[in-house]
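User: Quick sanity check before I run a bigger batch. Here is a single chain. Can you write out its predicted 3D structure?
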Amino acid sequence: MKPERVTRTQSVVDGLLDEIIAGRLVAGETLPAEADLAALLGVSRLTLREGVRLLQAQGVIVPVPGSRHRVAPVDEWTGLEAVVRHSRSGGARRRSSLELLDMRVMFETGAAELAAPRCSDEHIARLEELLEQMRMAHAHGDVPGFVDADLAFHDVIFAAADNRILVASVRPLTTMLQDSRSETSAVLEIREHALVEHAAVLDAMRSRSPEAAREAMASHMRQTRDDLLHYVLGE
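Assistant: Done. Predicted structure follows.
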């Protein structure tokens, strides 16, 4: 497929997801006529069909023999891209924030446990450098800089875990993680707590103890959840 067509096809995927998330295309109902949808999205019928096929592969659109396709309920979606797009919508904010954190607990505690005995001196040096960047960014009220250093800190741990499947599993969530961190890190108290927790994670990584690293990361995730509920969600 030519790059221009890939771009147009992705615009169909994005456009249809936007229509579904906004409630203009409703789960359980059939899609509008092909010609109408193509006109709405400003593409040819061929490009529309290619986009629809991609959404079928993600479980968003269900083919119905002898009839127009229908939109599947969100709980039946199987594609991570589509689920993440829906999760970032306003109406799903609380649930998606907590679901993302649940996923982080599973991935990040395991990654820390794997990384501790495998990490090199270079990994430790990089973690120290990033923690210092977080401190400097916090001191200057630089939220984007704090978030970038925070995400990079966790990326080093994933890299040190030396598991390609783990890294590939986390990568599609990068945008959602960036958005989530930007929201929470705007709160001064959350940044202060994060600095303490990251320092504890770094100490555990220095020890090369998988148990200590897992517990330090678990503590970080518990603090993150408490801060999210209290400062962001107001519970």
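The chain is about 75% helix and 0% strand.

User: Great, the batch can go ahead then.
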